[in-house]
Amino acid sequence: MAKLYFNYSSMNAGKSTVLLQAAYNYEERGMNTLLLIAAFDDRGGKGRIASRIGLGADADVFNSADNVFDHILRADEAKKVDAVFVDEAQFLTEDQVWQLARVADTLRIPVMCFGLRTDFQGKLFPGSAALLALADNLKEIKTICWCGRKATMVARLDADGKIVEEGDQVVIGGNDKYVSLCRRHWSERKLG
């Protein structure tokens, strides 16, 4: 039985690297993969999944209006798809997560999603909330805080390196940067 997987973490834990390695493992065995990434995430180039360590692969883009089930069905009809990989899965809508569950359940194609669990304010992203509710398998990809403890939270920093507490949930390609912290240091707003 195919499953819907959600691999989640805070920032800079290696989610894209793990995704690209898993996709490579399928491809090395002669299987076909379909990679998806949010349309507005163009840090690695439009339609490209890129890791911080230099790995990358082309991917189909999705936006919030897309029916990802139909997209995957068309791709599968054109060339059998053995596995689907979704990067930046926090940007999926709830409906799209249900569509991915349908891919696993009716098309019997495993769907592996990778994304953030929470935003810089400690709130769930809509896609992450739906994945936490619907995924058959949840896996945390761990990274560490500056203190050495497990980092589970994300802080957004302004251009001066100060923690930002308000603002849009999603900021891509801005001057802000993000840092992963343990819950204690995130709550204390302590950068180390």
From TrEMBL:
Q: Which PROSITE patterns match?
A: TK_CELLULAR_TYPE (PS00603)
Q: What is the active site of this protein?
A: E88 (proton acceptor)
Reading the lineage from the top rank, the first entry is Bacteria
Keyword Zinc applies: yes
Q: Note whether Chaperone occurs among the keywords.
A: no
Question: Keywords on this record?
Answer: ATP-binding, Cytoplasm, DNA synthesis, Kinase, Metal-binding, Nucleotide-binding, Transferase, Zinc
Where in or outside the cell it occurs: the entry states: Cytoplasm
> What residue intervals traverse the membrane?
none
Tell me, in one coarse class, where this protein mainly resides: cytoplasm
Q: Where does substrate bind?
A: V170, V171, I172, G173, Y178
Q: Which HAMAP family match?
A: Thymidine_kinase
Q: Kindly provide the name given to this protein in its UniProt entry.
A: Thymidine kinase
Q: Which organism is it from?
A: Roseibium aggregatum
